[in-house]
Write a structure and sequence with these properties.
single chain; 333 residues; alpha/beta; Rossmann fold; 2 domains; two-stranded parallel sheet; 9 strands; oxidoreductase; Short-chain dehydrogenase; SDR_fam; KR_dom
């Protein structure tokens, strides 16, 4: 699949944020997009907008926590476009709360959507990919919180740990049985979407994503790159990798630093809003965060999408440094 054009791409959580940004970008690139979320009327409007702009789109109201609805999503996509080439598991919900104050039904709802919804989508997509020649692309949206769990998004972090474990295990199984089916895990850092307003909030003020924030279009580009080229994993933004080494070397110190720094950074100072999407859709087709646009570029993410060029540039840099050192130490240079 060297190009997105002509591909049929199913995207869950497509009514806002990263999912909507991905659907619009894919449609402009020539893909046929299948938009899935719980909000059927909103999806229909978004699909009409895409088709008015010259794209091809199908809206399918889907609650990914219900396995039968995900199966129906695949069937409707095939009925309309003849096949599915790529399936993007993007739907997600969250809650801002300490674990002891988070009601268990809300904790379970987060896992029903973030983990079980992704399991339903992954297995349904694999069954379809196995039924057709050429395999397919499975793209699962995780988070850097699968590597760095943070206070106040504790249940969300736990669900993303589960997503990472499932995705890594599934990839390894398919490498042995169905190598034509590729599995990519996308791990966004803080993204400037409506995530804080859409999350269930048990704080006294409106929450915010811990900065720095990146534009959702960077994640959309990473997703479409994974549709074009087999990738194991793409991290959007460098925050998670930057914390990986100190977490491995100084885990207790990092525990204390994260415990002290994250809660105040997670509070915006703005008044609380009550319109969350944990149980029902918000009805908002919001892509961007209301208070910040997010960084438009991530060099670290671009390096992962161009590994060959990155290796060449790294080798050139090492060579240049070595040559400079030789000139300094060689009296005849």
């Amino acid at each position: 699949m060297p190009s997105v054009a002509g591909q049929v791409i199913v995207i869950t959580g497509a009514s806002s944020g990263i999912g909507l940004a991905t659907a619009r970008r894919a449609a402009r690139a020539g893909a046929s997009v299948v938009l899935a979320s719980r909000d059927g009327p909103l999806l229909e409007r978004l699909a009409r907008e895409i088709e008015t702009d010259g794209g091809r789109a199908l809206a399918v109201a889907t609650d990914v926590s219900v396995e039968a609805e995900v199966e129906a999503l695949i069937h409707k996509a095939v009925a309309r476009f003849g096949r599915v080439d790529a399936f993007v598991n993007n739907a997600g919900v969250a809650a801002y709360s300490t674990l002891d104050a988070l009601p268990l039904d809300e904790h379970r709802r987060i896992f029903e959507t973030n983990y079980w919804g992704l399991v339903h989508g992954s297995l349904a997509a694999i069954r379809h990919f196995r039924s057709r020649p050429g395999g397919g692309r499975l793209v699962n949206i995780g988070s850097v919180n699968s590597d760095v769990a943070i206070p106040l998004l504790s249940a969300y972090s736990a669900s993303k740990h589960a997503v990472k474990g499932f995705t890594d295990a599934l990839r390894r199984e398919l490498l042995a049985s169905d190598p034509a089916i590729t599995v990519t895990l996308i791990k966004p850092s803080g993204i400037a979407t409506g995530f804080p307003q859409h999350a269930r909030n048990h704080l006294r003020e409106e929450p915010r994503v811990v900065p720095p924030l990146y534009a959702p279009e960077i994640v959309a580009d990473a997703i479409l790159d994974a549709v074009r080229h087999p990738r194991r994993e793409i991290v959007v933004g460098a925050v998670g990798p930057a914390l990986a080494v100190p977490l491995a070397v100084f885990p207790r110190l990092m525990d204390r630093l994260l415990a002290a720094a994250v809660p105040p950074l997670s509070k915006s100072g703005n008044p609380r809003t009550a319109n969350d999407n944990l149980d029902t859709p918000t009805g908002e087709a919001r892509v961007h965060y209301a208070h910040a646009p997010g960084l438009p570029f991530s060099p670290y993410t671009e390096m992962q999408k161009r590994p060959g060029l990155t290796v060449l540039l790294g080798a050139a840099l090492v060579g240049a440094l070595a040559a400079r050192r030789r000139r300094r130490t060689d009296p005849f240079a």
